[in-house]
Amino acid sequence: MPGTEGIPCLLMRGGTSKGALFLASDLPADPAERDDLLLRIMGSPDPRQVDGLGGAHPLTSKVAVISPSPDAGADVDYLFLQVAVDTALVSSRQNCGNILAAVGPFAVERGLVQPADGQTEVRIRMLNTGSMATARFATPGGVVDYDGGPAAGGAVAIDGVPGTAAAIRLNFEGTAGSSTGALFPTGHVMDRADGVDLTCVDNGMPTVLMRAADLGVAGDEAPADLEANAGLAQRLAGLRLAAADLMGMGDVSAATVPKLVLLAPPREGGAIATRSFLPVRVHTSIGVLGALTVAAGVLAEGSVGHDLGVLPSPGEPFRVEHPSGHFDVEVSIEATPDGYTVTRSTALRTARKIFDGRVFPRP
């Protein structure tokens, strides 16, 4: 029984998130049984998650389930599961690009991929959307370098994470994936709901972009201040439901997507300033797929953020400002007869192995 023997688990930081990573073969095959087990492993539902691995915040209550891929174009399959903190909910309706940064190293750690002596590339199929990504990272002597030695090109820092670590480059094949089936799911770069202009966009993360000023805020507030704004929360909850209906997503009242992002002119030399809602808690930075989606949405002419932003010159990164700094991504879009298509999506992240052992779920 799992309660007496424990379950093999690798606890990792991926980007600005933290999660528990498992081999699919170590978890129940039945999704309902698996989700029940994961709730007990993470300590949900409980605001503190005191009886499990979760860190009492959506960014630290994440799970990745990884297996060898039957797809000839991929090395491993990656299923992301968002475990709610204070409700008994496990959702597979979104990807997570931050935890994605940990998937390649996990695949090497668990023997799913044979590493090279130098740099290793792992092709990852993201089961949540069916999209593909390649993670490239340093493996001197066939061992993952988490710290950032010479083989990794030195250590790098990412805003929102203390210290430095080895770089992990995430390359997506054009689009970073769309769970709604289109870059602009409504068929327009601009919509309107409840008197507010919206851009509904999905370059890997279904997202609703809005001008912060249209909601009566500046867009540079601290996350805690935005979370304490009860009037704003009520307004955003209604707008999220309306936007999801426009996007064809159905009833999302119990879902974690679409996300909401308030946009403002950049303050620190970037392209755009952001405040991201998850959808209630406010991100202390911004997710990988969130940043890639914001960039695609702002680059499109006629979107809510296009005239707010200071767009980069060709070949320069798109710098997304967030509460703890900035996040540089590389995104290119092209106009087509049907709207826009993404031709490039790349992000730089880091990851770290925190604990490797067995986890014992509560009964």
UniProtKB/TrEMBL annotation:
Keywords tagged on the record: Isomerase
UniProt similarity note: Belongs to the PrpF family.
Domain of life: Bacteria
SUPFAM superfamilies with a match to the protein in the record: Diaminopimelate epimerase-like
Keyword Isomerase found: yes
EC number annotated for this UniProt entry: 5.3.2.8
Record keyword RNA-binding present: no
Enzyme class: isomerase
GO MF annotation terms: isomerase activity
Protein's name according to its UniProt entry: 4-oxalomesaconate tautomerase
PANTHER family: ACONITATE ISOMERASE-RELATED, ISOMERASE YBHH-RELATED
Listed Pfam families: PrpF
